Amino acid sequence: MALPANPHTTLEDRIARKVASPGYREWRAKVTATNGCAVPVRLFGAWQLHDANTRKVLAHHGGEIFVPCGNRRSAVCPSCSDRYAADAYHLMHAGLAGGSKGVPTTVTDKPRAFATLTAPSFGAVHNRSTTTNGKTRPCTGCGEYHHQADPRIGTAVDPGTYDYEGSVLWQANAGALWHRFRIALNRELANAAGLKVREFADHARLSYAKVAEYQRRGLVHFHAVVRVDGPDGPTDRTPSWVTSELLDSCVKAAAASVKLTVPRPDGVALDLRWGSQVDVRPIRANQAHEVENEDGSISETRLAAYVAKYATKTTGKTDGTDRPIRSQLCIDHAKVSDHHRRIIQTAWDLGGLPQYADLKLRRWAHMLGFRGHFLTKSKHYSTTFKSIRDERRAFRHTETLERLGLDADSVLVINDWAYQGNGYDTDAERELAAALAGRIRDNRRRKYEQETHR
After folding, report:
1. In angstroms, rounded to a whole number, what is the distance separating the alpha carbons of residues 105 and 230?
2. What single string gives the DSSP state of each residue in 187-232?
3. Is the pLDDT of residue 398 over 70?
4. What does the pLDDT read at residue 305?
5. Taken in order 59, 60, 65, 69, is the CA torsion positive or negative?
6. Helices marked H in 98-138 — which ranges?
7. Residue 178 CA: distances (Å) to CA of 212, 223, 315, 382, 406
8. 295 with 280: CB under 8 angstroms?
9. Rg, C-alpha atoms of the chain
């Protein structure tokens, strides 16, 4: 449990006292080991290496340790968010360019598309668009010219007529809409080849990875990398009848055909669909110094970085909260815009109705009703987050054994840890940890820039 700050001292005094304390170096080493995690998990116990034959203790480390929280949201923990983004990048890039994580480089020759599926309109919202030469257009909702930082952008022009109920129900069922889109895309591809849907799996396989991103109006849209493989996955040749042009048209047709009907609270049927703005862009082989070509295509490296960035975003500074809503009091005092407060309130109210119990809307009210994973992939797209983490763990284990001059087959690893709590004890520790995290991130960025400019 965090200790209360002494009201008779300033934060600067408490930081100075912490830095001068006898255990500061040890504490700093534990924070640095987590890359400055903002809310580390504190464990107490021991780690030991035993000789596999004699059971003799060869190495020992005990006491309290810090373990990274692993939160993907940059607003909660920038350090762990960076790691998640790096893992997301490698997961995405492996499926795009191949050559790693068990994916062959031949995937670059397969039909691929970068598709963006949006939510439909539930009422007019303040918006800001620009012409091709960068000149700002007037808002289509109110006619004013909005500055890009105007907090009204994305909020309802007329809250009284905006369909908050429909938007929350759409958001809560966005995952089901995506599932239906995948089925529809298989059907469109099969029909294009003159195949029955059940025969499609014998000829080709649809692989994908998608990330959810919040728009300023508080609704998610999906960015998806879609690839068509042979029936056995990325190592299998794609049928010649599948082209990038065919994939483009099938994605648009599938998105337009999807519909999911759910009841409103009064029993009236609500048809849930994708928005009319379905963007499909071709993916080209790596050209790291270009963002896009004249045809709108995007390179593999840029696309992987783009998707990884959005995988760590929260609902936004004014869109939602990063903590679950526990009561009406949380909604009343949440630091969000009135528009997004009404979305949260609607999710909370609908979540109290028995007919929406399966949607668990109160549990996901802080996420504006969206209850899906932010990055998902099909089985054969590329590797998994678990595999990437296992590789990192194995690498560190090998490093430790090499440093101690031991062989992996001759030792047993014994871990005995007990949970002690989360976070830091004082505000001074939190400030120092944040400063360490910032320094680590700056050093990493500097090193990256030096390597890329060689």
Report:
1. 15
2. HHHHHHTT--GGGGGGT-EEEEEEEEEE-TTS-EEEEEEEEEEBTT
3. yes
4. 83
5. positive
6. none
7. 11, 11, 20, 19, 50
8. no
9. 25
Q: Which residues pair with 136 in a beta bridge?
A: 130
252-256 contacts: CB < 8 A, separation 24 or more?
Answer: 252/278, 252/280, 253/184, 253/188, 254/181, 254/184, 254/185, 254/187, 254/188, 255/115, 255/117, 255/181, 255/184
Q: Of 139, 144, 145, which is closest to residue 124 (Cα–Cα)?
A: 139
Q: Within 13 A of 332's CA, how many CA atoms are on the CB side?
A: 3
| pLDDT at position 447 | 83
| Burial of residue 126, with CB atoms counted within 10 A of its CB: 0-12 exposed, 13-18 middle, 19 or more buried | buried
The 3-state DSSP composition of the chain as helix, strand, coil percent (nearest 5) reads 40, 20, 40
Share of the chain above pLDDT 70, in %: 93
Give how far Cα 321 sits from Cα of 316, 342, 369, Å. 8, 13, 12
* Mean pLDDT, range 435-444, rounded to an integer: 92
Rounded to an integer, the average pLDDT of 36-61 is: 93
Helix/strand/coil for 100: strand
In the chain, the N- to C-terminal Cα span, in Å, equals 48
Q: Which residues pair with 181 in a beta bridge?
A: none
314 — pLDDT class (breaks 50, 70, 90): low
Spatial CB neighbours of 14, under 8 Å, sequence gap ≥ 6: 5, 6, 426, 427, 428
Residue 292 has which token pair?
A: 């896009």
65 bridge partner residues: 43
Q: Exposed, middle or buried: residue 107 (CB in 10 Å: 0-12, 13-18, 19+)?
A: buried
- In whole angstroms, give the CA distance from residue 250 to residue 52: 58
Residue 115 β-bridge partners: 224, 280
Distances (CA, A) of 242 to 89, 95, 117, 277, 278: 27, 18, 22, 24, 20
pLDDT in tens, 315-329: 444 455 778 899 999
Q: What is the pLDDT of residues 424-436, one digit of tens each?
A: 999 999 999 999 9
Q: What is the pTM of this model?
A: 0.85
Helices (H) and strands (E) in the chain, counts: 11, 11
Q: Can you say whether residue 119 is alpha, beta or left, with left for phi > 0 and alpha for psi between -120 and 50 degrees?
A: beta
- Which pLDDT does position 316 carry in this prediction? 45
C-beta separation of 211 from 373 below 8 A: no
Pairwise pLDDT comparison (412 vs 303), residue with the higher score: 412
Task: Give tens-digit pLDDT for 98-116.
Answer: 888 889 999 999 999 999 9
